[in-house]
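Researcher: Before we compare anything, I want clean individual predictions. No alignment, no superposition, just each chain on its own. First chain goes here; please echo the sequence and then give the structure tokens.
Model: Echoing the first chain and its structure:
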Amino acid sequence: PLLTTKSLISIKYSLMSNPLEVNEEVPAPMNIATISAGFEKGDFLVREEQGNRVYFDFFEEAFNYISNKGYARMSREDEKHWVDLMNVIHDSVKGGMKYNTGTLLMVLSRPVTSDGVPAEKKEAAKVKTPAKVDSKTLNP
């Protein structure tokens, strides 16, 4: 059956009264990094992509390290969501986590480009790639 004028008006009214349902965006791919506290090797631990862990004695060092890699602090709402999610995940491990997870202080994120490579790494690859040189122009 075709849509009637009455049903179209009803749909239009529904969309106008709930604009968030129409404009909801799919979250963009991202990498996350965390800063946690409470470890023997260093007071602060940065966990980032591919399982890299770096320990620091001062929070400022940890924050500057991860910020210089292109990570930025999430909004409070997003950060709270991630903290809650990670707590649930850690609590779900039967017998507890194998390693000390510390106290999660901050969650940061960095967007990933469509090909899965972080934008920062793409730019670095462009800079490090030498320009092609014509072999005829080189002196022997």
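Researcher: Okay. Second chain, same rules.
Model: Second chain and its structure:
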Amino acid sequence: FHYLPQALAGRNGPLIQRLINNRARAYTSLELAPAYECDIMFPTDFYALRNAFRSVFNTRNNTKNRVAQKHRDGDVLRSPFFLREHVDCEQTRTLSGYNPLLEEFFNTSVFLAPIICPARKGTQPADAFVKN
């Protein structure tokens, strides 16, 4: 999740909630939430993750894989864009035509990056994401 509605204030503040009669109830502070009965979720700052990846790894390698080449420096895509580009969305629809992957998870993102591993002598850098 890159965004959590009803999260506590602050950068990447957590969402504290529990289910009561199949409905989510969010709490405005940790002190008000009943101990051991709540889920605590933190949003992910995908752009900070991407920037950290770029600063730690030298991602400018030569790869034949077109998906890895496109995202070789790390990339952040909102889930619907990722799904439309990499998934057959017709296969994820329900019989009524509703597509929960495209219509429900509006607050999720995907971080894409190539697999980084040292090449052994006589081998090529690892291809990432999909097989050719």
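Researcher: What stands out in the second chain?
Model: Residues 18 and 36 are 10 Å apart (CA to CA). Additionally, Strands lie at 15-20, 23-27, 39-41, 75-78, 109-112.
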